[in-house]
Task: structure prediction
Amino acid sequence: MMIRIAFLQLLPGNSTDEQLALGKKACAEAKAKGADIALFPEMWSDGYRIPRDRKALKKLAVGMDSPFVRSFAALAAELRMAVAVTFLEDGEIAPLNSVAVFDRRGQTALHYSKVHTCVFEDEKMLSGGGGFYTADLDLEGGTVRVGAMICFDREFPESARVLMLKGAELILAPNACPMEINRLSALRTRAYENMLAVATCNYPEGQPDCNGRSTLFDGVPWLKDEPGVRDMCVFEAPGKAGIYIAELDLDRLRKHRETDVMGGRYRRPDAYRLLTQDQ
Result:
């Protein structure tokens, strides 16, 4: 099964309505390019703007049942393409940094809020999500088990490890930061150690503190019947804005997961108790 992922590496507009219009146009273009999944960068609904004023911040937030989010559910059904749309979500205490993944029928497959918010920067204004989740995502060619982590979640091995233990084959990772060798290495490592694919969509050059370079790591560092190792980075976008398509060979990944030693096969949870204790 081949999965075509569209990375919507776009510059944002100036309002939620503009974000909706730009996003819908990008999804239609992604479908025309043969995409099975369209992935937005982090907090697309407001272009990753986080006002320090709480009233202004709340005014920007939208709910899961808002016209903004529901429009992408309807669009997913219309295009028969999965859509992973990101948004500043209205929350009980403070807004959250969220992603909703709609399948090709427009049904909600996954709803995730960023657990590891950047509380040392503007994201101290936000609430954090409470856990990591996976779901079977219905695509034209079959299903894939997906999870999500958002930007800073990447820096914590536990994020991808929990998703792997819950069966994730593909992690969708919206992003809004400079993608340089160290962050890219973290994504590569998450894919390698968990035998899963990681698709990261970033904002392009021109968005403050961003530089494009959206990536797909396919999680297969070697092939059983071929000598040597291979580069798991099967796609890296340039810095400029655009809609980029990359292919994930899910059958190859599943074969690797059946035979290799990484992932959860030889874990020793009894030796990791310190990880679950509050420090």
In short: Helices lie at 16-32, 54-60, 67-79, 157-165, 181-194, 250-259. The CA atoms of residues 35 and 120 lie 36 Å apart. Residues 2-276 form a domain with the Nitrilase/N-carbamoyl-D-aminoacid amidohydrolase fold (CATH 3.60.110.10). The first strand starts at residue 2 and ends at 9.
